[in-house]
Amino acid sequence: MTDSLNAELLDLALEVARRAGDLLRDGRPADLGVAATKSSPIDVVTEMDVASEKLITDFLAQHRPQDGVLGEEGASSEGSSGVRWVIDPIDGTVNYLYGLPSWAVSIAVERDGETVVGVVAAPMRGETYHAVLGQGAYADGERVRVRTAPPFEQALIGTGFGYVRERRIGQARVLHELLPQVRDIRRGGSAAIDLCDVACGRLNAYYERGLNPWDYAAGALIAREAGALTGGRPGVPASTELTIAAAPGLFEPLQSLLEGLGAWHD
């Protein structure tokens, strides 16, 4: 029953992520602008964020009406089935607004609070990543694995920045200390894609403060199923406070360094 239900949930997640990705890729207005802002004037929502979330929630209401939903743009329902869908209709909205290709539709499925399915569709890359708990991670149907941990000074590490001034100041301070100690830093603008890049071996590690569950739930499962460790502060799961993903052997020293640098607070 568990395997068959997870397979059903994966099929639905793949289908609705594809539909939302097609809408976003093919339906983006030439004059796309900001529809609203959230935490600051540079934390934006576009009309297409709202349209994508509506497409996804309408699809789920048709196929899984008893399930709960948590969406970035306000969709929220408890449900009665023990299943909850955690949705980011556009992860990387600023990239999408500017016409940059690094944006994705991120969909995770929880059962009784545990993430069991993750799908990240990146239409402008032409790639879709997915994982089912205990069944490995895949990019376009091909199995992926994290890159073996390099020496710390040779690590390529992804990160991201918040939209509130005080948080950005703190993140810049951490970056100032971290950058001289590693190969380089990448800032792609989509947490979901960054986590999948760890899974695919395109990044050695990724960390960020200030993510929400819809930002990391799907990507973190995909990274774990590809062999990465994920977490937050020592002994704490990934959370809004801090999210880290890296290969074993790199995760531990990166987590220790970030803890010492206070990357978990503004």
Provide an overview of this structure.
The protein is of the alpha+beta class. The chain folds into two domains: 2-143, Fructose-1,6-Bisphosphatase, Chain A, domain 1, CATH 3.30.540; 152-261, D-Maltodextrin-Binding Protein, domain 2, CATH 3.40.190.80. It has seven helices and 15 strands. Strands 4-3-5-6-7-8-9-10 form an eight-stranded mixed β-sheet, sandwiched between helices. Helix 5 (191-200) packs parallel to helix 6. Its cofactor is Mg(2+). Mg(2+) 1 binds at residues 72, 88, 91, 215.
Q: Which properties best describe this structure?
A:
single chain; 266 residues; alpha+beta; Fructose-1,6-Bisphosphatase, Chain A, domain 1; D-Maltodextrin-Binding Protein, domain 2; 2 domains; eight-stranded mixed beta sheet; five-stranded mixed beta sheet; EC 3.1.3.25; inositol monophosphate 1-phosphatase activity
